[in-house]
Amino acid sequence: MNIKIQxxxxxxxxxxxxxxxxxxxxxxxxxxxxxxxxxLTNNLKLNFKTxxxxxxxxxxxxxxxxxxxxxxxxxxxxxxxxNSLASGxxxxxxxxxxxxxxxxxxxxxxxxxxxxIGHRFTSDQTFEKESTTFRLRYRISGQIPLSGESVNSKxxxxxxxxxxxxALESRHYDLEIRLAIILGYEFNDNNKLEFxxxxxxxxxxxxxxxxxxxxxxxxFIAL
Amino acid sequence: xxxxxVVLLSVIVLTVTNCIAQTxxxxxxxxxxxxxxxxxxxxxxxxxxxxxxKWYKEEGLDNTSIESKTKYLSKKYSIEFTSKGExxxxxxxxxxxxxxxLVRQNILKYLNANYQKVKIYKTQIxxxxxxxxxxxxxxxxVFKNNTKITTRYELIVKTKTADKYQKFEFLFNxxxxxxxxxxxxxKNTDNLEY
Lengths: 223, 194
Known about the structure:
The structure holds two protein chains of two kinds.
Chain A: H1 2-22, E1 27-39, E2 44-58, E3 61-78, E4 83-94, E5 97-112, E6 115-127, E7 132-145, E8 155-169, E9 172-188, E10 191-202, E11 210-222
Chain B: H1 2-19, E1 22-24, E2 27-31, H2 38-46, E3 54-59, E4 64-72, E5 75-82, E6 87-94, H3 101-114, E7 117-128, H4 131-139, E8 150-161, E9 164-172, E10 178-184, H5 190-193
């Protein structure tokens, strides 16, 4: 297990340093997320998430500042053995402006031997003062334990996310691809801490490739 | 007459107690071959398996066991031992449709009578008994009823009842009659959903 963790740590350092070296417009930040979930009756579940974006490095300068804060609430209902339908609202505070977003989501969770796979299909509508953005998103996540055949308390796991975001804003279409590799630790089934690196690639359509890296720190709590 | 009645009542009580859903809790760790009891290693060696064998220590609520997992003749094997290395059972993963027709029918009859909707995720044929006979039985790859070997079927099933989704481990005898069931605690998947 130690060798695996060392390998992952080295891989993260490699990805981070390589990206930083090759991008002039490289942006690096931290994404701390607290994710609180509460099971309700009738297969309903409530999710509350708060996320902030802290910029560390932008346009060849260390630029330490807070970019935005999000607060979201999503209510989901289990509609099958492995499927859930969800709907929610997100409030974003950026530069003293308030942005509203509506979210609709469908998730599928699959267990394939030691691999646990999550598919998330999302549509969202973001309402700003001057414009409205419509997005269609698909994210695939995979999780494997780093010891044994399933993740147990006080054990590490490895998670990878790959997401495709199609955005339409004022008749302008763009695609963003997100890739993340995350190391997680399960204190117990209701308390997990994750740390990893996420790269977001955008600007594919107008050929001005943008690359942003985020250090993900996630805390998942189930009440 | 009274003795018969007492025996009958005991059987009913035992059956009912057995069939009440227990909660299944298991935590497993990988074991290095050097940590495995010699008896267990010897047993697996006699099977002549050439594929990689993974060893695990399984901690349940009441007991600890040693388990080896491997692929043998294209099938997934799980061989369970006591913590001292005594063989407990051998489980071979098969497809549900590979079960004998009558067994399959009995199992489905039970599941459909008790649940609105079911989805079978895993089927294993479980052999237990005398270690020598067990070894012969498994190496010959003849999974037909052998009276000297106890054959059972272990199923992992997701069920739905009145808007409640649950996952169980069911154990059926060689005729497909229910022996026991254990509720499997569903793992939290919030970190894959949000």
